[in-house]
What we know:
This protein has about 110 residues and is α+β, with helices and mostly antiparallel strands. The protein has helices spanning about 10-15, 25-40; strands at about 50-60, 70-75, 85-90, 95-100, 110.
Amino acid sequence: MSMRLRLPAATLAAALALPLGLSSAPAAAATCQAQIDQVLQDLGVPQSEVKSVKVVHRPGGARSAGNYRLNAWVELGSCSSGHLVIDMTRHCVVQQSYTTGGCSLPAVLSH
């Protein structure tokens, strides 16, 4: 006698999606939080200065839909306009940091 395993549709859909390497921005944000915190610490930015952090996917090229980069847009209390941007690979490896608009930090390039 064979036994059949019955899974709810949502569980089955989630299980099938895992091998595809699908990810969402909130998952990426949680995954890269340690790297973002390290950059802030290295730049001497206290956590109390951070108003918000938004991690967004940025296309990494036309060759593959799975080829993307991540940018963390950090809003700082000391910046009246602009952001600190932390550019990372999809695996959270920090490539560079820069500021935009009227935001400036010592030792960080401004765009």
